């Protein structure tokens, strides 16, 4: 029982480091315990010297600047990351491939020697045949992702699919989704004064603007539900 609690305390610490805020309810649901148990766990971590901040009505977070030592991955976790790396390598956005490969290199650096050998063996024995020719159609994903989280507008030179006409747009990036072939950016278009979708492979030029926009009340799943209702004529 004590070992189970110790494992949960470690897992809670990792969760708090990976997110800005987590509620007691979220933690209780994740680890299958009561909210009261989470309260006791949080107190135990605080008594052990972990600087946990409590925002009333919002949740828990770690004090700014507090970091856990590098974690060790289990063999199964390392295998999952290696498999994902093979999949990402076939993505058509070059910026995603570049940054993921750099992240995987850092992850491999903290593996034990025995696990490094196993990771290398597995990497050589997994293949994905999607985009086998490794075609690159865009290089903007990393820039767009950062613009979404920084609430920065983008100036685009965008070529329409139907007319092949190029237009200049200033958009407020909101979300991304991926099809079998392309990354799609959902944004508020200032030119059309409406939500619009932009394929990253149709962006001819992209520039990040300096002045942040006001964050939107935007829910990606609700957006998809609205689109489906419109398409079904409801």
Explain the layout of strands and helices.
Layout: H1 2-18, H2 24-31, H3 35-47, E1 52-55, E2 59-62, H4 75-88, H5 94-109, H6 113-123, H7 141-150, E3 154-159, E4 166-178, E5 183-189, E6 194-199, E7 203-208, H8 220-231
Antiparallel strand pairs: 1-2, 3-4, 3-7, 4-5, 5-6
Helix pairs in contact: 1-3, 2-3, 4-5, 4-6
How would you briefly describe this protein structure?
With 234 residues, the protein is of the alpha+beta class.
Describe the structure.
By secondary structure, the chain is of the alpha+beta class. It has three domains: 2-62, Orthogonal Bundle (Arc Repressor Mutant, subunit A), CATH 1.10.10; 75-123; 141-231, SH3 type barrels (Roll), CATH 2.30.30. The chain has eight helices and seven strands. It has helices at residues 2-18, 24-31, 35-47, 75-88, 94-109, 113-123, 141-150, 220-231; strands at 52-55, 59-62, 154-159, 166-178, 183-189, 194-199, 203-208. Strand 5 and strand 6 form a beta hairpin. Helix 2 (24-31) packs across helix 3. The relative contact order is 0.09.
Rg over alpha carbons: 22 Å
What order do the helices and strands follow? HHHEEHHHHEEEEEH
Strand order of the largest sheet: 6-5-4-3-7
Assembly state (oligomeric): single chain
Number of domains: 3
Second rung of CATH, namely the architecture of the largest domain = Roll
Please give the number of β-strands.
7
